[in-house]
Design a protein that fits this description.
A two-stranded antiparallel sheet has the order 1-4. Strands 2-3 form a two-stranded antiparallel sheet. It is mainly alpha-helical and 507 residues long. The chain is built from 24 helices and four strands. The N and C termini lie far apart (50 Å). It is 54% helix and 2% strand. Helix 4 crosses helix 6 and helix 11 packs across helix 12.
């Protein structure tokens, strides 16, 4: 195929096409009618659906404590929207892990139920404390993707107590839930789950509290039941259920087809050769991926991303610049597999810039910090396995680099990796480190009895998402609070990366 193929007029985008999708708990500001309680436009008189609610509904309420911190000169670290999301959801997930850890073989559903019942209250374990007064449950809106925010510890995980969120949304959703239950009484479990997701995504909310409750319910449903695999729908937006949920979690409520077409028409970017050398190898062994996602689609999305990144000024708060780096071809693969190309481009761009900006800097600082934290987490959770691997000179840098760099997307099968990504987008990409630890624990017996453990570690066993997620939620309460704090922040906070890399240099 000619190298010019990706840039021809076959790109299927329509001028002026715009789409709206549900919001997420860490959404950025938008031109939509605001539900803000602090300084934004007045709350709309009519009800607003999750799909149409303004992102600022979650962004303005934490401003006052942050402004007070700035006025007093208190130092606050940097945080992206995804970091704020990980902090706001961590109370639920920590509670789920605490309950899961107490069971012999904890199912994900039981852990999620515990998360719902204990959200906002004192969680069990050695880190069960009430949210701090300066904690943040949504983003700080503004022109920059990186914002000031309090440190996202597990004791400062939500800006409002659960009782307020639950009571605010319970009355709103109860009648709809009863109707859904009656409709799905005779349906199979997957159909029932699909109806629950659709109800949440299309639910109408009149205020910030109800919107937060809808997002909490969406995260809980992902943890308890997973996202059913459904076919792409012929309904105007071309997304299956997972695609609609992903766009909600990534705040892709509107896309600009003209912008994408213009970026594509600019042709190969400055690093196009580097991109082309990687794309043809993307998930080569996955026949389903190869049949759905062409090499031209990967080339268009990645080159367009570089063009867009070059047009954007660096962050006002951090000198972050984005271009193509190793592994981004694999990171774009799940989005192109799940979403139509236009939506995939926007979701991929949001994911890179908001969820894991330090993972895609030229030196891959975030990846190297993730590897350091993987060693620390394994040492804390299973000292004997850590000591065994260390004696063999097998650190995470040696065996886990691809899994950390691609958030486990490089490990087959893809359908199981997508279930892990459901968890990451709902609760934070930092959980990938614990998912890798969970895989190591599952391999422990074979590893410690093997004369050549590195041979086993060269290629991790096929993913079993249900078991990995169950183990991961059980591992969270076993980590010291300061270690979990570093884990949450390492994908976006350069202070954490500098500290970890400096400690490594000194040792």
């Amino acid at each position: 195929m000619s190298s010019k193929a990706p840039w021809n007029s076959s790109t299927k985008v329509v001028k002026g096409d715009k789409k709206r999708t549900p919001n997420r708990q860490q959404a950025s500001s938008s031109p939509s009618p605001s539900l803000s309680s602090a300084g934004g436009p007045a709350v709309a008189a009519t009800s607003v659906s999750v799909a149409q609610a303004a992102s600022t509904a979650l962004g303005h309420s934490p401003l006052k404590p942050l402004q007070a911190a700035h006025a007093s000169g208190d130092a606050v670290p940097f945080m992206t929207e995804a970091g704020l999301a990980g902090a706001s959801a961590s109370t639920e997930l920590m509670a789920a892990g605490a309950v899961a850890a107490s069971a012999a073989n904890p199912p994900a559903a039981s852990a999620a139920a515990a998360a719902e019942s204990t959200h906002g209250a004192n969680s069990t374990g050695k880190r069960g404390k009430q949210p701090g007064p300066g904690s943040v449950a949504g983003p700080v809106s503004g022109p920059s993707p990186v914002q000031h925010a309090p440190q996202p510890t597990r004791r400062a995980a939500s800006s409002q107590p659960s009782s307020g969120l639950t009571s605010g949304g319970a009355g709103t959703h109860s009648s709809a839930s009863q109707r859904t239950s009656a409709t799905c009484a005779n349906a199979d479990p997957q159909t029932d789950a699909v109806h629950e997701y659709v109800e949440i995504i299309t639910s109408r909310n009149t205020n910030d509290r109800e919107l937060r409750e809808s997002l909490r319910r969406l995260r809980h449903l992902i943890l308890s039941k997973g996202i059913p695999d459904t076919a792409r729908e012929n309904n105007g937006h071309g997304c299956n259920l997972r695609g609609r949920v992903w766009k909600a979690l990534l705040s892709i409520y509107r896309v600009n087809a003209l912008e994408y077409a213009t970026l594509v028409q600019r042709g190969p970017c400055s690093v196009a050769e580097k991109i082309q050398n990687d794309t043809f190898r993307t998930l080569m062994t996955d026949k389903g991926f190869q049949s759905r996602v062409s090499n031209d689609m990967l080339l268009r999305v990645l080159n367009a991303f570089v063009w867009k990144a070059q047009d954007q000024p660096p962050s006002r708060l951090l000198n972050l610049r984005f271009s193509y780096v190793q592994g981004m071809n694999v990171l774009s693969a799940p989005f192109l597999y799940v979403l139509p190309e236009l939506d995939a481009f926007n979701a991929f761009t949001s994911f890179i810039q908001q969820s894991c900006p330090l993972y895609v800097q030229p030196a891959l600082e975030g990846v190297h910090c993730g590897l350091k934290l993987l060693d620390r987490c394994l040492e804390e959770i299973d000292p004997s396995l850590f000591a065994f691997l260390k004696a063999k000179q097998l650190t995470a840098t040696v065996y886990a680099f691809p899994s950390v760099m691609t958030f486990s997307a490089c490990t087959p099968p893809l359908d199981q990796a997508l279930h892990l990504w459901d968890l990451f987008l709902a609760y934070g990409v930092h959980l990938n480190i614990l998912c890798i630890v969970a895989q190591l624990l599952a391999m422990k017996t074979e590893l410690m009895s093997s004369s050549s453990p590195m041979r086993m570690l060269r290629s991790f066993p096929e993913l079993d998402a249900r078991k990995i997620v169950s183990t991961t939620t059980a591992l969270i309460p076993r980590l010291p609070e300061d270690l979990y704090d570093l884990l949450v922040r390492h994908t976006f906070d350069p202070i954490v990366c500098d500290m970890l890399l400096q400690e490594d240099a000194e040792n």
